Amino acid sequence: MRGITSCRPREGTIDLLTDLSEDQLATYRSTQTAPDGFDEFWAETLAEAAKHDIDVRLSEVETGLETISTYDVRFRGFSGQEVAAWLRVPAHATGPLPAVVQYVGYGGGRGHALENLLWASAGFAHLQMDTRGQGSGWSLGVTADEAPAQPQVPGVMTRGILDPATYYYRRMFTDAVRAVDAARSLDTVDSSRVAVVGGSQGGGNALAVAGLRSDLAAVVAFVPFLSDFPRALRVTESYPYKEIIDYLVVHRPDVEAVHRTLQFFDGVNFAARATAPALFSAALRDTVCPPSTVFGSFHEYGGEKEIEVWPYNGHEGGGIFDEERALRFLRGRLGDA
After folding, report:
1. For range 176-186, the mean pLDDT
2. Considering the domain boundaries, does residue 80 fall inside one?
3. What phi and psi, each to the nearest 5 degrees, are found at residue 174?
4. pLDDT digits (tens, 9 = 90+) for 87-96
5. Is 55 a catalytic residue?
6. Of 69, 139, 200, 292, which is the active-site residue?
7. Active site includes 315?
8. How many domains is the chain built from?
9. What are the tens digits of pLDDT across the range 318-328?
C-alpha cells in the first residue's frame, strides 16, 4: 500500500466538507460484513453464466477515424443474455495488446462510437461494456435487462432488491465479469495484461470484478459507487443511493431483507477478496458517493493499493487528472503495446 495522495488545502483555509476529514478517513472502517454464503452465491452465479458460450461477435464500424479501429461487440452475459460493447484498438495494431475493460457510470450506456477514445489512442485494446437496462440517462445504450418486472423506485437500485438472486446488480456484475472473458478471448488482446476501469457505478463494477477474478493485471476505481451501503444510506440524501431510501419509506417491513441483499453486492466485501494492484480516487465534497464510503472499500482492499484524494471536488472527482493518473498507473502495470 502506497498510501494517500492529496492536493491539500492551504494552511488556514476553511475546509467545508460533506463527510469525514482526511484524518478521520485514514482510520475509518466500514461496519459492512459479508453474509453467510457470499462466496458460494457468486461461485454458483458465475458457474451458471459459464454454461453459456461467450459467443463474442465483432462487426467493424466505419467512424471516419484514421488512428483507431472500432467494432460493435456482442457477447453473452448473465444467463446467456446478449450484452453489447465497443471495442476500440489502434489502427493497424498487430497485437497482442494490453487491454482495458471499462464500465460506465449510473444511467449511462456504451455511448457513441466516436466517444471515449483515450485508451485506444494510448495503445490499449479498449472494450467498453454497455450497461443493461440503462443507457438513456446521459449516454446511449442498447442492452436490455431481461428480468421479471417487480415493484421498484424509478432507476435500477431497487429492481429485485428483496432477494440477492433477483437483484439487478447480480446481472450487471455477472455481465462485467463476462466482459473480461470476452476481452481475453480476442486475438488482439494479451490475456495476461487485462485491467478493469470505471468511475462511480463503473468503479463499483470494477471492484466487484476485482473481487470475483484472480487474473486481472490492475484495477482502477474512480469515486466508486455501490460501496459501504450501511454508511451511504446514513450520510447521503443524493441519488442514486436515495432510491433505496425512497423504497424503504414505503416498504417499511422490508428493511432487513433489503440490507441482507445489499451485503452480497457491497464493494467492501468484494474489495476484501481482491488481489490485483488498484488505484482509487475519492473527492471530499462528493455527496453522491461520500468519501467515507470509498474509503470503506479502500481500507478493505486485499491487494496493493493507492488512492488520490481531491479535497475541493464533488462527484466529478479528479476528472481528466484522474484519467491522466490512471494512464500512468496502467502503463506501469500493463506495459506498452
Report:
1. 98
2. no
3. -65, -45
4. 999 998 888 9
5. no
6. 200
7. yes
8. 1
9. 999 999 999 99
At 296, the amino acid letter reads G
Q: How many CB atoms lie within 10 A of CB 91?
A: 12
The angle subtended at Cα 306 by Cα 301 and Cα 307, nearest 5°, is 100
Domain that holds residue 312: 3-57+143-334
On whether residue 201 sits in a domain, the answer given is yes
Tell me the pLDDT band of 262, cut-offs 50, 70 and 90: very high
21 tagged catalytic: no
User: Does any domain span residue 93?
Assistant: no
Catalytic residue among 69, 292, 315, 322: 315
Q: What SS3 class is residue 195?
A: strand
- 108 domain residue, yes or no: no
CA distances from 261 to 15, 95, 257 (A): 36, 42, 6
What is residue 203's three-state secondary structure? helix
pLDDT for residue 5 is more than 70:
no
Grid cell listed for 16: 467545508
Q: What is the CATH number of the domain that holds 248?
A: 3.40.50.1820
From residue 44, how far is each of 41, 79, 231 by CA, in Å?
5, 12, 28
Q: Give the global pTM.
A: 0.95
List 281, 286, 292, 299, catalytic entry: 286
Cell of 118: 483515450
